[in-house]
């Protein structure tokens, strides 16, 4: 609370229409959702299930879009809103940095932040969490389990790249896109990661692994410093993003959830959605 929370509050968090900090704490406040859950990586699925259920019960009709981000995510909120303006929140939309593994249409990496439309949040709770045995509600990896549950609830996955195939959500840090840098997420991304200068959309939305100091530096460069004489051609940005549904190609090399096969991912989506699979994926397995 003394470092990351203060940095988010002082930078991108204040540009959101509403921000809610989810934490295991007895502190109270209008922007704090305190949960009585053990504070550990292994409890993140349980934490996010309770969070989305709270959002559904409290804010569903007040907001069009719901962004889940980490405390070391950095989000350019204006670019996010511009991107979402091309989509319809009354449709079940799920978008972020699209990873290809562990479910029929992959999942969004949690660190980059991912967005649910109002319709998607409704389906997640009503057709996911509330259906006994349909979705895992504790253990496992939060982002994987959320992606699997959304697929079971028939929520559509959307592209977040621009027309030049440059990514906008980034589950890696800014420096990971330097030429020659090792980026373990290269094998995860549904859209091939590129290095600078073609790595990132002109209207990039997010980065991950941004510590509280870098968060303030990025904010200064983006919002306090300008280049004299440089202008933005807004007409060129009008149709920048490819806002359409996306299905992972069958020829893409992918890892499957323990106990499942690629064949069943492609064979019968309806049959897969009825399954109850709750096998824990260790972090070292996820990152390999």
User: Given the C-alpha coordinates, what overall shape results?
Assistant: globular
Report the mean per-residue pLDDT as an integer: 86
Spatial arrangement of strands, main beta sheet: 3-8-5-9
Beta-strand content estimate: 5-15%
SS-derived structural category: alpha/beta
Number of strands: 10
Largest sheet: 4 strands, mixed
- Taken in chain order, the helices and strands follow as HEEHEEHEEEEHHEEHHHHH
Q: How much helical structure, as a percent, in the residues? A: 25-40%
Backbone CA Rg: 19 Å
Low-confidence stretches: 279-285
Distance between the termini: 32 Å
Helix tally equals 10
Give a verbal description of the structure.
This protein is an alpha/beta fold. It contains ten helices and ten strands. The strands form four sheets. It has a four-stranded mixed β-sheet with strand order 3-8-5-9. A hairpin with a 7-residue loop joins β6 and β7. α1 runs parallel beside α6, α2 crosses α4 and α2 crosses α5. The longest helix has 16 residues. It starts with a helix and ends with a helix.
């Amino acid at each position: 609370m003394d470092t990351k929370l203060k940095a988010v509050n002082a930078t991108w968090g204040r540009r959101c229409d509403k921000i809610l900090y989810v934490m295991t704490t007895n502190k109270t406040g209008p922007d704090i959702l305190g949960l009585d859950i053990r504070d550990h990586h292994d409890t993140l699925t349980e934490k996010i299930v309770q969070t989305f259920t709270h959002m559904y019960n409290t804010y569903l009709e007040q907001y069009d879009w719901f962004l889940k981000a980490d405390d070391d995510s950095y989000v350019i909120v204006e670019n996010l809103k511009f991107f979402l303006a091309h989509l319809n929140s009354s449709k079940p939309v799920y978008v972020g940095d699209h990873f290809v593994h562990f479910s029929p249409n992959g999942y969004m990496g949690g660190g980059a932040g991912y967005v649910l439309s109002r319709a998607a949040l409704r389906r997640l709770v009503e057709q996911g969490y509330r259906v006994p045995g349909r979705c895992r509600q504790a253990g496992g990896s939060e982002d994987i389990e959320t992606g699997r549950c959304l697929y079971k609830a028939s929520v559509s996955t959307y592209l977040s790249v621009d027309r030049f195939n440059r990514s906008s959500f980034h589950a890696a840090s800014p420096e990971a896109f330097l030429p020659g840098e090792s980026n373990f997420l290269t094998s995860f991304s549904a859209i091939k990661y590129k290095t600078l200068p073609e790595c990132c959309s002109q209207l990039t939305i997010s980065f991950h692994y941004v510590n509280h100091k870098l968060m303030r530096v990025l904010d200064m460069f983006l919002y306090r410093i300008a280049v004299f004489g440089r202008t933005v051609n807004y007409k060129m940005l009008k149709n920048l993003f490819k806002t359409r549904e996306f299905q992972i190609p069958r020829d893409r090399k992918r890892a499957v959830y323990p106990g499942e096969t690629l064949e069943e991912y492609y064979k019968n989506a309806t049959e897969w959605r009825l399954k109850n699979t709750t096998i824990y994926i260790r972090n070292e397995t996820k990152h390999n």
